[in-house]
Amino acid sequence: ADYFVICGLDTETGLEPDELSGENFEQTPLRRTFKSKVLARYPENVEWNPFDQDAVGMLCMPKGLAFKTQADSREPQFHSFIITREDGSRTFGFSLTFFEEVTSKQICSAMQTLYHMHNAEYDILHTPPSNDKESCSSTGDCNGTSVSKLQRFNSYDISRDTLYVSKCICLITPMSFMKACKKVLEQLHQAVTSPQPPPLPLESYIYNILYEVPLPPAGRSLKFSGVYGPIICQRPSTSELPLFDFPVKEVFELLGVENVVQLFTCALLEFQILLYSQ
Question: Where's the UDENN domain (predicted)?
Fold first, then answer.
């Protein structure tokens, strides 16, 4: 790996709306997206692979920062990305996004303030005129109904809820060793969240993957130690098909057999193919 990167919430700049996601002020504050930042990277720069802070920050967390409470599911999510430079060269990124508790009182207070503003606007928009109160009581469409209470109070209360924010750890590599990078990141995250400390300091594992684990020669396999077990990566020889480390099974699970066959047919017929995804 060339870089180890951490992206997430910059407590100094606070909550900034993520302009790339478009305006979503009609959403409740917990459903809005906020701007993420590259918080740290190591090393500072690699001569053969200059660090592109804007690209890495955007691709590590393409949806920006997400906030949740203890009532929401907070399972870690893994994804990969490619940065293609002007000269056609590529560098590969692998990102594990997880949620950690917000310890900054300023951020918690800011989220609470956003909810007060959102609820006040909701009241203004949904309070019926005085002559409509009778009809509203019969139809059940006013603020006093259970539906409106759900919309209004399915929110964040600083005195009752625990606030969590998304954060990601990322490896930038010269080749697409997806399985190996995923295992490295998952084991690092496991070590951070485990009540028992890892056998060695976490910095030593990161240093190992950056400086001591070499790129395997063509046609060879490489086995190295992760935090909790060995990790293997294989590089095809020059006479084999190029490296493709992604499970084809997932493509069929996501798209279904008919769509995969249709896509394959379009590729063979050299049709233009557009994949649209959230």
Answer: 18-278
Query: Given the structure tokens 């992760």, which residue do they identify?
Result: 226
Tens digit of each residue's pLDDT (9 = 90 or more) over 217-263: 888 999 988 888 899 988 889 888 888 888 889 889 989 999 999 99
**pTM listed for this prediction:** 0.79
Residues 170/184, Cβ–Cβ less than 8 Å = no
- Write the DSSP assignment of 75-113 as a string of letters: --EEEEEEEE-TTS-EEEEEEEEEEEE---HHHHHHHHH
- Residues 104/111, Cβ–Cβ less than 8 Å: no
| Virtual torsion, Cα 135, 140, 144, 150, nearest 10 deg | -150
| Whole-number Å distance between alpha carbons of 267 and 271 | 6
Query: Which residue, among 57, 95, 61, 55, has the nearest Cα to 78 in the 3D structure?
Result: 95
The total of other beta-carbon atoms located within 10 Å of residue 258's CB is: 8
Cα 105 to Cα 261: distance, rounded to the nearest angstrom: 52
Helix H or strand E encompassing 135: helix 133-139
Closest by CA position to 96, among listed 15, 30, 6: 6
Quick one: tokens of 261? 């066959």
Q: Are 118 and 152 in contact (CB under 8 A)?
A: no
Query: Can you say whether the dihedral through the CA atoms of 210, 182, 165, 23 is positive or negative?
Result: positive
DSSP one-letter code for 180: H
Domain residue ranges of the chain, discontinuous segments joined by +:
1-125+156-174
Letter string b/e over residues 217-240, b meaning 16 or more CB atoms within 10 A of that residue's CB: eeeeebebebbeeebebebeeeee
List, for residues 7-19, the tens digit of each pLDDT value: 999 888 888 877 6
Q: Which residue has the tokens 């430079």?
A: 85
